[in-house]
Amino acid sequence: MPSKKRPSRTGLWLVGARGGLATTLIVGLHLMRRGLVSRNGLMTEGPEVSGLPVPALDDLVVGGHDIRQSTVFDSAVEIYNETRTIPYDKLLLVRDELSEVDGRIRLGTVTNCGAAITKLASRRVGADTRSLRAVVTRIRKDIEEFRASNALDQVVVVNLASTEPPIAKAPEHTDLAALRAAVARNEPKHLRASTLYTMAAFEAGCAYVNFTPSNAALTPALQQLGRESGVPFVGSDGKTGETLVKSALAPMFKYRHLKVLSWQGYNMLGDRDGQILADPENKASKLKTKDSVLSSILGYPLHTHVAIDYVRSLSDLKTAWDFIHFEGFLDYKMSLQFTWQGCDAILAAPLVIDLARFSAAARRRGESGPMSHLACFFKSPLGVDEQDLHFQFHMLLEYLRSAT
Ligand code: NAD
Prior knowledge:
Blueprint: E1 10-15, H1 20-33, E2 60-66, H2 72-83, H3 88-93, H4 95-102, E3 105-107, H5 115-120, H6 123-126, H7 132-149, E4 154-159, H8 171-174, H9 176-185, H10 193-203, E5 207-210, H11 220-229, E6 232-235, H12 242-255, E7 259-269, H13 272-277, H14 280-291, H15 293-298, E8 303-310, E9 317-327, E10 333-343, H16 344-364, E11 369-370, H17 389-403
Parallel strand pairs: 1-2, 1-4, 2-3, 4-5, 5-6, 6-11, 7-8
Antiparallel strand pairs: 7-9, 9-10
């Protein structure tokens, strides 16, 4: 009798595994598997992707790191109480699966993460006094054990941790030898926790996605390590809300030769991410990735302003108001305003599942280096200058056509 082929299982290792976004993803994944909710929002469920070897949702196994010691179920209840985005009756049906995920979450590191993030960490994380090399090795071992004990073909690591303060340029960012030397000498000054996670992921031979704006997570030196390890990687900062709308709308002005004079954008959000972004240091990372889109699409400098304010009562229901002042025929000035009210985690969770499936398929196909075809998912797409959402989407379609 021919032996029955086991389906290949893919690990999804989430850094920040008990955060709002990760929790929404984990609950949603298990509810989709049971057929209790639709697969809305997942691009990888569309017909364009049918020829690509993406893992089935049933074959994804989730684990990860966090610095807080709660449970995924408790995080989900917190989200239910705040926003009602996670249906409570359905949540109870997958409680056992969520406990299994908890069993695969390990304590992470807050090395050089800044005061706002360090305050979040449980006391056991604060007590970590190991050398940088020992921390990288421990993270790598956590990932390798996860792969071995769950009989996984491969693991995709996704950074969903709180946004770190930006780090100033230093030789450790551009030169892999300098980065390795700093780790060996135990000098954390020019690196952050995200640097150590990425190093460990590449050393463990994993594909890697930086969904956060943290600029220490995928520096040129780390990209060099990714290339040397022969794995695919992509980032940075998921494009899910106001910036997504901007990158779809700004090209319209360009196509019609309407001159944009000013583009003001005000964002308000009230969840833990918003609280961390209220810290001026951490906010600087986000403002940088959000502000770079417009002049790049329009091709000329213009007056722009992006503000992010923490409004506790809004929780994860982010609100953005954009005012666009533009000039048309006879230099006549007109304006457009839009209000975007989206739930951050609901918008982002399916993108992260898509990114994990695309990354796993790329690894299966033997691809390595930056996955430029995934630019449409990011505010600062790695190695791609194109910011126009329409062109970016066509880059993905082109990849899918040539890959299938
Ligand atoms: P969150 O604050 O709810 O979750 C972050 C999680 O990361 C928390 O559980 C925290 O304990 C954990 N964490 C912090 N530092 C860590 C470390 N060093 N190691 C391991 N875990 C760590 O935030 P969120 O809303 O889930 O967003 C997650 C990240 O995704 C943020 O950086 C955010 O800016 C980014 N992002 C989110 C969206 C979106 O939700 N629409 C879009 C783009 C980018």
